[in-house]
Amino acid sequence: MTEASQHGPERGREYDDQRVHGGHPPGAPHEPQARHERHEAEPPVEGPLHALAKAAWQVVLVTGIASLILGILVLVWPGHSLVVAGVLFGLYLLVSGVFQLTAAFGTHQATSLRVLAFISGALSILLGLLCFRGPMQSILLLALWIGIGWLIRGVTHTMAAISDPRMPARGWQIVLGVLTFVAGIVLIDSPFRSVAVLTLVGGIWLIVVGITEIITAFRIRHRAKQVPQTV
Hints:
Blueprint: H1 2-21, H2 31-41, H3 48-76, H4 78-106, H5 111-131, H6 135-163, H7 170-189, H8 191-225
Helix pairs in contact: 3-4, 3-8, 4-5, 4-6, 4-8, 5-6, 6-7, 6-8, 7-8
């Protein structure tokens, strides 16, 4: 009886020491309950759909503001805009020419394809260097480039619409192809005047697109607020 009473308090003290040193002081909440309370204190995790909706309206808003500012700059300084467009066109020709030359020497394609890539790359580099000789050369090459592209696109679009009777809105497709072809001829025949008109139309178009995108961004923001945060 005495031996049992001596071991009883010692076991009790040992048990209490294990609780204290084990991270369970007297009066502390039980471990599952503490985890539950910490879990309730954490903010809810943002769902992927909510994050996507929040980012979408911001991207559209930034794009709209950029388009609006660019359109205003084009209308205020059309001459400078043409020069900048010509310089960017020259850089595009140089970079594309370098890539085509790299493809011509560094690929295992057929010899004919490599020769075509070499000729195209060398011609692009030559035209790109001509763009940097003066603003008029770059604007002229840009106008001719766009005019030739519209000319080829108009012919192919019209022929495709004529040869395919099942094409949707076939009549409008033919009209669009003919108009593109005529626009290409006008741009080649009078490049400087046509590019100036094209710059004016482009500036107005950028302003309209910018205002539309800004309005669309705020509509997306209103819809995004209705998406639950955890979704």
